[in-house]
Amino acid sequence: MKTILISSILSAFLGALFAVVLVQGTPSIHAFQPLQSSTLQQPGYQQPAINLPALGYNNGAQAVPVNRVLSGEEQTNISVYENVNRSVVNINTKVNRPDFWFLTAEPEDEGSGSGWVLDKQGHIVTNYHVIAGSDFISVTLFEGDPLPAKVVGADPSNDVALLKIAALPELLFPAQLGDSSTLQVGQKILAIGNPFGLERTMTVGIVSSLGRSLRSKSGRLMKNIIQLDAALNQGNSGGPLLDGGGNVVGMNTAIASLTGENTGVGFAIPINTIRRVVPQLKEFGQVQRASLGIDLFWKSSRGIGVARVIPNGPADKAGLQGIKIETQIIRRGGYAYRRQIPIKESADQIIAINGIPIDSTDDLQESLDQFKPNQTVTVTILRQNQTLNVPLTLGLER
Questions:
Q1: pLDDT attached to residue 93
Q2: Is pLDDT larger for residue 381 or for residue 103?
Q3: Any idea what DSSP says for residue 317?
Q4: Shortest CA distance to 313 belongs to which of 298, 295, 299?
Q5: Is pLDDT above 70 for 64?
Q6: Given 3-state DSSP classes, what are the helix, strand and coil percentages for the chain, each rounded to the nearest 5?
Q7: Among residues 159, 229, 348, 363, which one is catalytic?
Q8: More confident residue, 145 or 45
Q9: For the chain, is the Cβ count within 10 Å smaller at the N or the C terminus?
Q10: Residue 93 is inside which H or E element, if any?
Q11: What DSSP assignment string belongs to 119-156?
């Protein structure tokens, strides 16, 4: 027991000595003020006045006050932050998992992310993966208590979600939307979010690349993704990506990392995608996507093959053909067996839609995003080595 006590006293002494060594120069009462409360309370002691102006040095090596002049880049950063930081919100989620033994629901899983104010009506834009599967969602504005939020709509395919809160209009500062089609590699961008719960943190970088592809959690390939090198970490998801004018040009979504922390490779959904998605989320709660009425494809030597059409769907009504199934009777040892053999040669192969080449299902999804349900398109198919143009009225994706 004595040995442990002596060891603890010695460790504390060495720790204090080491702390002093880490402070460069002669220790002063100002440098250690937080640790000097007992000394400052001695009778008759008066704390000296503290005056710490910005210091520079003239030719005589005498300290003189200097006025710090901000560079143009610093002024831009400050201006963007001052104009936009109140538009950024903190999003917290909870998932209740039932306790079947006690027949109660206990909150077990919590998450957090970022978002931004879209309008004075209280609409908030964030990533779908931030709120997916949540039982309770709250939004905290730049000031005030957390407010409950409801999901207006979601588009898992583009990782976009639209929330709504009941807040006073004077507390809502909508972000200004820009145009992601004008972005250039090397252009300066800024990100604001809540990494690790540190609210309204800003980082700065450049556009590293454009036109990247990123697969969403729904499995759909998102194209035209922005790559950036501004530091993004857990909690940045859903925060705005800004240009030098403070306009939202994207929404920070993911990072490429083996550790889960920033490695200088981040990705953002372009604002033009969000512009296209949000009005449908407001009106329908989901994106109304066009469909060919084909539920199964196969990769062919040219284009994509139609494996199976939906009965009475658009493709079926237009006369597109899937893989035919032939039934063969096989007799062995006095027994007869039925075997079904797919005949791929009988299936149509889609090679273009309205002249847009189709080489994969990702190409097909991208081309269909340009059209609306009930719109008529021309589907170019290859049928038994003949090229045909088939008019087809698109349906609604289910």
A1: 94
A2: 381
A3: H
A4: 295
A5: no
A6: 20, 40, 40
A7: 159
A8: 145
A9: N
A10: strand 88-99
A11: -TT-EEEE-HHHHTT-SEEEEE-SSS--EEEEEEEEET
Q: Quick check: helix, strand or coil at residue 132?
A: coil
Residue with tokens 């899983």, as numbered in its chain: 109
Tell me how far CA of residue 373 lies from CA of 108, 369, 394, 397, in angstroms: 41, 10, 5, 8
User: In whole angstroms, what is the distance from residue 279 CA to residue 126 CA?
Assistant: 14
Residues 383 and 369 in one domain: yes
80-132 pLDDT tens trace: 999 999 999 999 999 877 665 655 555 567 889 999 999 999 999 999 999 99
Nearest to 354 by CA among 390, 385, 387, 319: 390
- List, for residues 20-54, the tens digit of each pLDDT value: 232 223 333 222 222 223 333 334 434 444 444 44
On whether residue 372 sits in a domain, the answer given is yes
Q: Classify residue 266 by burial, with Cβ atoms within 10 Å: 0-12, 13-18, 19+.
A: buried
HSE, side-chain direction, 13 A CA sphere, residue 291: 18
CATH code for the domain of 373: 2.30.42.10
Query: Of the residues 87, 112, 129, 134, which is catalytic?
Result: 129
Residue 39 tokens, joined: 């000394």
In a domain, 351, yes or no: yes
Q: Could you give the C-alpha distances from 112 to 58, 86, 222, 262, 398, in angstroms and in order?
A: 50, 18, 23, 17, 30
Q: Are 354 and 366 in contact (CB under 8 A)?
A: no
Tokens of 71: 């560079």
Separation of alpha carbons 128 and 6, rounded Å: 57
From the candidates 87, 237, 291, 367, which is the catalytic residue?
237
Q: Final residue of a domain: which of 148, 171, 194?
A: 171
138 catalytic residue (yes or no) = no
Please tell me whether residue 181 adopts helix, strand or coil conformation: helix
> How sure is the predictor about 398, in pLDDT bands with cuts at 50, 70 and 90?
confident
Given a contact cutoff of 8 angstroms between Cβ atoms, the answer to whether 111 and 133 are in contact is no
Query: 334 in the Ramachandran plot: left (φ > 0), alpha (ψ -120 to 50) or beta?
Result: left
Q: Any catalytic annotation for residue 209?
A: no
DSSP assigned state of 177: B
Inter-CA distances, 79 with 115, 193, 225, 243, 246, Å: 20, 17, 26, 12, 8
Tokens 């300290």 label which residue?
63
CA nearest to 384, candidates 302, 325, 313? 302
Answer yes or no: 237 catalytic. Answer: yes
Q: How far apart are CA 340 and CA 45, in angstroms?
A: 99
What's the predicted TM-score (pTM) here? 0.72
